[in-house]
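User: G/U mismatch-specific DNA glycosylase, Streptomyces sp. 900116325:
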Amino acid sequence: MTPEELQAARDRTVPDVVAGGLRVLFCGINPSLMTGATGHHFARPGNRFWPVLHLSGFTPRQLKPSEQNELLDHGLGITNVVARATARADELAAEEFREGGVILADKVERLRPQWLAVVGVTAYRTAFGDRHAQIGPQDRTIGGARVWALPNPSGLNAHWTAQTMAEEYGRLRAAVDSAGPRRPA
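Assistant: Predicted structure for G/U mismatch-specific DNA glycosylase:
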């Protein structure tokens, strides 16, 4: 991908990978330029979402971003708090996160996943006005879904290794598994 092709992806949106009644709807902060250019979520090299999803037991093998639709076979989906692609999340205004939170809540209400997993606690805090939220299960529900804040899998998030992220994602997977089968949409 050339720098020009990446810059051409700025402000693009990427279709969600969703269906009604998912076990978990993973919610990224917003698409990267690589995601905008390819149309595949978490496509930027160095993003640890796909390895961590596998290491935590959500998928039987590590999927490639181009295989994102296979998530639906596992009762999983992907959306974003903010739909437009940027080079970095810090290019987004707080108001975009709050507006995205309203749109996300409506989407969750319509799709009825069991869990909403926001991958980025700062994005969750801003989108839903919960400035004291920590990584892990949240006390609130959104659109009827239980909520879990997960570490951001971006390679820029040096505070978490793939292994420590996989442990946290694994805590969510254990909670999902203990809740039983998917509910109907």
